[in-house]
Amino acid sequence: LSARTEYSNVPEALVDFLRGVRIGVEAGLDPLNAAQGAAGSLPGRAREAVEAVTRRLSGEYEEDEWGFDEQFAEAVFPIFEFLYRTWWRVEAEGVANVPSHGRALLVANHAGSLFPFDATMMTIAIMKEHPLPRWPRFLVLDWAFGLPFLSAFIRRGGGVPASPHNATALLEEDELVMAFPEGVKGTGKSFSERYRLQRFGRGGFVEVALRARAPIVPVAVVGSEEIYPKLADSPQLARAVGAPFVPITPTFPWLGPLGLIPLPSKWRIEFCEPIDISGHPPEAAEDPRVVFELSERVHETIQESLYENLIKRGSAFL
Amino acid sequence: VGSRIAITGISSQWGAALARRLERDPEVEYVAGIDTRPPPPALERTDFIEADIRSPILSRLLPSTRVDTVVHCGILWYPEPGRPPRTLHEINVIGTLQLLAACERTETLRAVIVRGSAAIYGCEAAAPAFFTEDLARQLPLRTRFQRDISELENYFDNFARRHPEVRCTMLRYQPEIGPGLDSPLVRYLTLPVVPVQLGFDPRLQLLHAEDATGALLAAIANPVRGPVNVAPEGTISLSRALRLLHSPALPIPHPLFEPAMQRLGARLGAGALLGDGIRLLRYGRGVATRRLRDEIGFDARFDAVEAIRDVAREATARRIGPDLHPGALARRAIGARR
Question: Which of A124, A126, A149, B121 is the most exposed place for a label (fewest CB within 10 A)?
């Protein structure tokens, strides 16, 4: 019986709402404001939704100076939460190793040839499992910022073009910054080389951490290699679209857009103990020996943690 | 003894706005305005010198004014009626060169301030989110305007090196907006329907016209050496700016955007948003303002969002053509049914 009364209430509430909008507009209000005012007559959830949409459409929301749009990030959060919980069944360990305040550089392995999801899954892990969650920022290959849609999407979600300049500026604002020093070498390696950590560039991330005096948190992500297993790549196609590489997976490009659906592998993310660099002065960033040593230490920590977590995970898909 | 100041480009909106503020300052003893066209009549005690900055005659006129500060407001960002695109290079580069030659002969000179452009950094997908002053010319120079700015900055740097007794300030301005300002960018933002590039949402820093003049006055009072970025605090995305301005966006695939703007631009009064503007509206640009705040000591009154809000307040009154915002359309639909 109660379900029936609720059902019969819906059209009534809608009529009331539309009448409210019309009265507001006749009184000379802007339609967006009128809708907001009339939303008072709607039941709770619908009222909040109308208010949120009208605020959004009239530009009344916050973006920070980097273009991160928290409202947008919260709106797309459920999609990635579904991937995190149901699709990839992510188990996160050691989230408490991420500092709850102040700057820190999270350094992780990079994989997922077609579209790397490691940064988003690390974000969800921190937002869901950390006692004091906060939105981390992630460094993204420059190339992505020249693409329509993807560039705007990444920027609103907290991505910035990967450069020492941007990373240092973000750390100086006491943000959490995620970096993937393997870069394209990590995402572009073939499936047979999975979980074999590639070279860490020239250790630029260590220089950034030393200059900004930020602790480095090594992160090992297991499961990301199986989502789009790269069997081969197509240099011709890559040249044609101007991409760093175009992977051939068991499903892409054979199944067209369906090939973009990532395989449901099982994931583990381990946040390792932070590496304290406060013993080194900022000038150590110019000393190649210190930089190389620290870079090597982070590399080894992640590689060892990857092997441990591969054993803990067991089967890749079940 | 008060200061004696010469302003180039006095008949432009920027030069005239500066002269109005300087005239009111009792510390300023003398203001000279240089341009080819007469200044707006509202200026009272500005001494108008009719001269083209591209001509060598300036080298004889400027020393006789015995000024201690030269403010170069004569750099053009957009073509204007009577100043087609191909003359921009001449006015900006050759004009600056001639002006600097005239400055060499002015013995009383203590400071030169150029109202330049942040376009020197360019607009790139992979650019730093906030350019600092030392990052100019690190990326390829892509547009004509960008190359011109880079060239005139080179001349200016040379001048500064040869004259250590003169303080040389290069102000790198982000594009300007303002409720009273008539520029192609303001006209573009207040179009009834604003064409944007599909899938791109650039971060912009648009400087309020009031702060633009304020920063120039602050630089005259405290001319620090070298380049200084002039921009508001923070950034705003184009999509949010258009929502605040009540301008509905019309997304166009980006390869078609430039031809569309060239066709529509003239007809809709958006003016020429050529070259630099197209890239700005695709990738955006942010600059760091630490030098402006800490060294010149200027705090902008409007941040990036407040500047847009201020334009939005006036935009409905300035709108050309009907209001096509979804909200306004709904209002008319409801009104028609009644």
Answer: A149
The arithmetic mean of pLDDT across residues B296-314, rounded, is 93
- Longest CA pairwise span in chain B (Å): 75
Residues of chain B positioned with their CB less than 8 A from the CB of A57:
243, 326-327
Which of B194, B205, B240 is the mutation pick for testing A, counting most A CBs within 10 A?
Answer: B240
Q: Dmax of chain A from CA atoms?
A: 76
How far does Cα B229 stand from its chain's mean position? 12
> SS3 for A125?
helix
**B335 reaches A (C-beta below 8 A):** yes
Q: pTM here?
A: 0.88
Residues A69, A204: contact at Cβ < 8 Å? no
| CB-based contact, A59 to chain B, within 8 Å | yes
The residues, any chain, with a CB within 8 Å of residue A211's CB and separated by 6 or more, are: A168, A282, A285
d(CA B179, CA B186): 8
pLDDT of residue A195: 92
- What is the sign of the dihedral through the CA atoms of B13, B19, B22 and B26? negative
| Residues A110-125 pLDDT 10s | 998 888 999 999 999 9
For residue A108, the surrounding DSSP H or E stretch is: strand A104-108
- Could you tell me which of A318, A216, A310, A226 has the C-alpha nearest to residue A269? A310
**Exposure b/e, A116-146, CB count within 10 A at least 16 = b:** bbbbbbbbbbbbebbeebebbbbbbbebbbb
The answer to whether the Cβ–Cβ distance between B127 and A161 falls below 8 Å is yes
Span A206-223, pLDDT tens digits:
999 999 999 999 999 999
Look at strands A216-222 and A268-271 and give their pairing.
Answer: antiparallel
Count the neighbouring beta carbons within 10 Å of the beta carbon of residue B194: 21
Task: Please name which of A253, A311, A252, A301 lies closest in space to residue A276, comparing C-alpha atoms.
Answer: A301
Q: Does A57 touch chain B (CB under 8 A)?
A: yes
